[in-house]
Design goal:
Elements lengths: L2 H4 L4 H10 L4 H19 L7 H5 L2 H43 L1
Length: about 100
């Protein structure tokens, strides 16, 4: 259950799902958050922007760039660890052998 799923549900369906009380705490929060966002949009139309409009904003683009940089750094770290693991294992084995003999 995530926001992409509940945004397409009608309000009555969301209310019924909340009443069922079979969802986890976080899933219930997602359902309730969607209902609150709809109420806000009814009271102040236009206050909520669609995702395409948000993606065009500078702040989102900066966030997206940082996210991509983080993913690249994480992938680079994983590759480095994979490269170093056999080397580290050999050093550890050597140290263990020195201690044992």
């Amino acid at each position: 259950m995530d926001f992409h799923v509940v945004k397409d549900m009608d309000t009555e369906e969301l209310e019924e799902l909340i009443e069922e009380e079979v969802y986890s705490f976080s899933e219930t929060l997602i359902l309730k958050s969607e209902l609150l966002m709809r109420q806000l949009n009814e009271k102040e139309p236009g206050v909520l922007e669609d995702f395409e409009t948000i993606k065009e904003k500078r702040d989102f683009q900066l966030y997206d760039k940082k996210k991509e940089q983080w993913k690249k750094a994480h992938e680079d770290n994983e590759e480095e660890l994979e490269r170093m693991f056999p080397e580290l294992r050999a050093v550890m084995r050597q140290k263990v052998m020195q201690v044992l003999y």
